[in-house]
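We close this part of the discussion by returning to an individual protein. Part of our work consisted of pairing the sequence of a single chain with a tokenised description of its backbone. What the numbers capture is local backbone geometry rather than side-chain detail. The amino acid sequence and the backbone structure tokens for this protein are reproduced below.
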Amino acid sequence: MKLKESSLDFHAFIAIYGDTILNSFIKKVYQVNQKEFVLQIYRSDVKKRDFFISLNKGIGFYDAEKPEEATQLSMLFRKQLSEKRIVGIEQINFDRVVRITLHTGQEIILELFGGGNLILTDNGKIVFAMEQHVYKTRKVQIGEEYIPPAVINPVADLETFSGILDKSSASIVKTLATRVNLGGEIAEEALYRANIEKDKMPSEIKDQYQILYDSIMGIIGESSKNNAFYYEAEELLSPVLLTAINKEPDVKFEDFNEGIGFYLKHYPENEKNKSSVERRIESQRRSIEEFNKLMQVYNEFGNYLKMSFPQLQKLINIVYNNVKRNTPEDFKYMDMDISDINPGKNTFAINYNGTKIILNYRESAGNNINYVFNTAKDYKGKIEGAEKAIEETKKLIVKEKQKAGKKKRVKYWFESYHWFISSSGNMIMAGRDAKTNEKLVKKHMSDDDIYVHADLYGAPSTVIKHEGIEITEETIKEACIFSISLSRAWPAGIGSGTAYWVYPSQVSKTPESGEFVSKGSWIVRGKRNYVLNIPLELKVSIVDYKGNNIPMISPAETRTESKKWVLIKPGNEKRSVAAEKIAKILGIEKSEIESILPPGGSIVVENSKEIKELS
């Protein structure tokens, strides 16, 4: 998985967890966002689980944040799928396509390539598709029979695998990545293990096909061992150890789904922050990949037809006579499937290596061969056009960066909250609003953590993360200062206040009878441990996090390794004015500072020793 799960990831997930999904009942369906869904499934021996589906990331058991109100689409899915039993789950032809079969004959098809698609079928016919498309080889439209994007498994056997390589005009690494559905990282790993140079052409390594096939099958078998390996710099999660990277993984998991959950939780922020221009380039690159595949298929088919010229003419005559006799049924000819005979357009289709190629039975064999080669040239032209478009789009990126002045740094997942690192090294996070208050407690608070709250209504939920670091009294006091400083006490100009801390087991969403708990609010039961006379004074500093200089706001007394900091207190200077002053002193963008300041006005403590040293 690198931003999006690969064919190998899907194979691994289904091989490892498929049996535990079978005979589960779909209880509810949630729509997390436009591209993400949760099937809440239940089986008596494994209880209730959330089967997470992201059309632009992948699948796994993952506790995604569910909306409080059901969307219209989730209600539609509930009506179609609730209480249905899953009797099958499979990957189709080692592609990024998963089919979930229900006891009613309905199917949920997940096409997790490109922009992604979720399709529902009933007895093989499409009854719903999030995205409807008409492709050269198939139609994804309501009422049409569902046809998968690939009709052969490229790693089914050595003969099929060799046939794909023989017909490829791309390098071996590109062939494995695209035609064999391995993706770039696994293609390079297979070649590395087989000791084959990735830039070789398939024709140059014909005598090593068996070795390469065995290498791929070894990787596929290894992927089912229920492990996961995370490479942080590469932003990559793999079900197999990637020896081609020549370094140890940063994190190892003995459960593949734990790795998926970790990856989704720390999903690379740089992907989320891509501009529309960068996303346009990615779309153009995907188009080039698809055009390149089709160009190769049409060239290969054209050469095949040239070598079978008499047989092609005979086939054209057979189709023409069948139409004249009013019997335009599908049939087989020389191991090829002949289908889609259309008397209105004088056309018929030949299924060649998973691609339906349309020919004209009123044209000669020579004209049809010319049409096939011309189509290949058209795709070549489209590739060249897309490559030019990418170059033009790159120029727009340069202009965007020049306009922005500086390239924006990577934003980390915890920066969606208020946060700081305590003197003892604990991560402390607080919500920014009702939504993040809710998410922080539900998603990030563990049993070993501590929950902190200012003794004021509407203050943010604050969590001290344990994560193997002892939570000291000093850390608790710092978290209490942080919590009350981010509350309405700051804009009110209060100099000190009170906060309390409790254990996670005391925090609940369940109200007493007749009460209501709003979003972002929590019920705290049992003894509250109060910390009194808390001073409202914060420190803005620059800290090094994974090689990036990022601003951190923390209690003034927090010990940091940073030599640059600015003290602030509640005051009457607008946030933007205070942010500008702090940014100038610390040498960082104003927008970075403004986003972390507490609500209301502040005053920069101009006469502090630290500022004088920086002046």
